[in-house]
Amino acid sequence: MAASASAADLSPPEPPSEPGLDQERFNERFEPKRNWSLIIGGGAMYKPEYEGSEDLKVSPIPFVSFTYGEWLEINPRGVAVTALNHDGFSLSGNIGYESGRDEDDHDRLRGLGDIDLAATVGAEAAYELGPVELYAAIDQTIGGSESLIGTFGIGYSAPVTERLILGAKAEAIVANNKHMEAYFGVDSAQSAASGLREYKPRAGVKRVNVSANATYMLTDNWLVRGRAELGILTGDAADSPIVQEKLQPSVSLGLGYKF
């Protein structure tokens, strides 16, 4: 019995039991969290043939939207980088383009010459109050029309159901002399070539836009987007001999896939 007791005493102690593995906490800690979003799609837009035209046309519109975190967004308008985002206030910079205008786009433009495609650089400040956003932006065209454009507006966006998001926006657009002269002015040479009277517009509010949009998730990945806008040309832009119609409506519809 003593030998048995001594043998028992010399045996190594049992190791302490380890707690079970919390698989959910392990996954949350070590699995990478996706902080990007990519949407690819296409559709069509029905809009004026040029700004101020009374004739409308259908144009195809490819659509790509990529976001990374809360600081990078790439969409058909260009690239935007958010440098500051705090307590609803954000400040961002962007690089985009101005599409210009071709005198072959419409008979009314013959003799006015082309406005070249050009790059733009700009900045935007915005403040969010729940679903409402107040924003102000400024964009400078490098080359082309050498436009300086200011945009001031208010937007609203909120989910109505789990699959439907509705939004609305109202904004005013202010343009400098170079933009107004490029898109709405007629100099002596252009007047002789086109038959339009000479006209030299000044800087100011050129347009007011109101729009509504909707996004509906057909599935977890497929979505459809629609947008309707009415632009109203104002001031010297509206009085230009190039302008046939002050009211500038447009509608678009597109289908996209979200990765």
Instruction: Report the C-alpha radius of gyration, rounded.
Output: 29 Å
Instruction: Please tally the helical runs, counting DSSP H or I stretches of 4 or more residues.
Output: 5
* Average residue-wise pLDDT: 90
Spatial gap, N to C terminus: 73 Å
**What amount of the residues lies in strands?**
over 45%
User: Given the helix and strand composition, which structural class is it?
Assistant: mainly beta
State the order of secondary-structure elements, H for helix, E for strand.
Answer: HHEEEEEEEEEHHEEHE
Low-confidence segments, given as residue ranges, are 1-21
| Main beta-sheet strand count, sense and barrel state | 12 strands, antiparallel, barrel
Instruction: Enumerate the strands of the largest sheet in spatial order, edge to edge or round the barrel.
Output: 1-2-3-4-5-6-7-8-9-10-11-12
What is the β-strand count? 12
- The CATH architecture of the domain at 45-60 and 96-258 would be Beta Barrel
Question: What level of helicity do the residues show?
Answer: 10-25%
The third-level CATH topology of the domain at 45-60 and 96-258 is: Porin
Q: CATH class of the domain at 45-60 and 96-258, anyone?
A: Mainly Beta
Pfam families: MipA
Organism: Phyllobacterium salinisoli
Region (Disordered): 1-29
InterPro entries: MipA
